[in-house]
Amino acid sequence: MVGGILGMGEKDRQTAFEIAIQLGAVLGPQEAWLTLRGLKTLSLRMERICHTASDLARRLEAHPLVERVNYPGLPSHPDYAVAARLFDRCLSGGMISFDIKKGTAQKVFRFMNSLELVLPATTLGDIYTLLLYPAQSSHKKLTSEQRAGIGIGDGLIRLSVGIEDADDIWEDLDRALRKAF
């Protein structure tokens, strides 16, 4: 479910209205109620997610089986200063990507198959910690050379941090990393 608001000038209103009629772009009452209910705890959930993501990014960066971590809340990230300036209390989001050392599809699949708490998914963003393997999902149609050109190697994993306990997520990631090698 996706909810939102569309703002525009009078010139585009009729076109947007016609598209909405054709697509049925109106939330049902149950979906609208769920959206309103979820908004009440959004700031609490995002604060928890951001703190957990920051903790996990630091731990992943220090892990001997991880080659590189992409998270704007880490001082090693090229945009760290920008993130520190823009994000309140350095809450730099809940998305992390990382490359496992000498990453191959086989190692990534062993890692993913060893996870118990973190769930492999085709889309990211939930209260649960999810991950996907871009080389076989979001960027599957690109060649390995094209993926490498945009920083997506065979060992890259995207992690969407949820609201679970940081130590529980870490134990799952660490154990699965060790099993992958």
What would you note in describing this structure?
It contains six helices and five strands. With 181 residues, it is an alpha+beta fold. The chain has one domain (43-180): Aspartate Aminotransferase, domain 1, CATH 3.90.1150.10. It has a five-stranded mixed sheet with strand order 1-2-5-4-3. Helix 2 (29-62) packs across helix 6 (166-180) and helix 4 (105-114) crosses helix 6 (166-180). The longest helix has 34 residues, at 29-62.
What are the SSEs and their pairings?
Elements: H1 10-23, H2 29-62, E1 66-70, H3 80-86, E2 95-100, H4 105-114, E3 119-120, E4 130-132, H5 144-149, E5 156-160, H6 166-180
Parallel strand pairs: 3-4
Antiparallel strand pairs: 1-2, 2-5, 4-5
What keywords describe this structure?
alpha+beta; 181 residues; globular; 5-stranded mixed beta sheet; Aspartate Aminotransferase, domain 1; 6 helices; single chain; 12% strand
Strand portion: 5-15%
Element-by-element helix/strand order: HHEHEHEEHEH
The CATH architecture is: Alpha-Beta Complex
Trace the largest sheet across and list its strands.
Answer: 1-2-5-4-3
Q: Tell me about the largest β-sheet.
A: 5 strands, mixed
| CATH first level | Alpha Beta
CATH H-level superfamily title: Aspartate Aminotransferase, domain 1
Question: What is shown here, in short?
Answer:
With 181 residues, the chain is an alpha+beta fold. 48% of the residues lie in helices and 12% in strands. Helix 4 crosses helix 6.
